[in-house]
Amino acid sequence: MTRDEIRTAVLHALTSVAPEIDPQRLDPDSVFRQAYDLDSMDVLNFMIALHASLDVDVPESDYVKLASLNSAVDYLAGRLTS
Amino acid sequence: MHPSSLPSEAHVWLLAGAEDAAASQLDGLASLLHEEERTRAARYLRAVDRARSIVTRALLRLTLSRYAPVAPDAWRFVTNRYGRPELAEVPRSAAGLRFNVSHTEGLIAIAVARDRDIGVDVEYIERRLTHDIAGRFFSPAEVHDLRQQPAEAQPRVFFDYWTLKESYIKARGMGLALPLEDFSFHLRPDGPPTISFAPALDDDPARWQFAQGWPSEHHRLAVAIERRGEDLPVHIASLPLEHVAR
Q: Which residue of chain B is at minimal alpha-carbon distance from A46?
């Protein structure tokens, strides 16, 4: 899976749980939990949606590594190729 | 709810219907915000989310200014390492002032206390539940209790547990870095809920006081307050939008 495909999957998971996010205006380095006031349920739904589309189970201790779009793509690319 | 009573009380301010604010009201409230807060609000796709963001931040500033002689637009915030907003520069008159903010469709809540951690969560209980959050993330005891409820009661009980769990992790200031399955709430018909911890989570149940409320028939509220001696009375007040945004 390419980084572009991972990026698309992350954006899809994110906007599926938080439709208020405009992907066109998303700063790829902003911490989206803070930038969009996402609550914990949004974050957990995001993790479940990622698991459904990429089959990656993210442990809670790694949630912080998926804080922004770019960091999430980095983390998932590492997990998917390892 | 008088500001001077704060050391011996916890206060929760509620505001319903921020999404209905008129453009002129939003302009007035936005003038209280820091540039970064206005930029953040502008990023939202939907007008209702922009409105809720502006009203939430303005309400937080106006609320804090009830408790210290600081102008609403003068408060500065930082986030702790887990993302919880906190006061950046605390004037002597506001020493020990602690707050926590929650918002959901149709409701904003701001909890305030002095010299102790506080967390608040409000949820719109008609919120669409897309995934099995409880089955994946709640403690075994909570899942067991939830599944035992009649089907029609399960969504409400889910939000009992959810709001309490969220209020606790917010009071701790650590968010989801605290695994939700490592602590359990115990709902009691005759008193406030209590908490227990798995060995992996180093905390003491006696250190926490919890309170719940129904701000409307569609909204569940939970508050977690660090206990230092006697339980604090929790006072909840609803503010009309017109009172905040003129």
A: B131
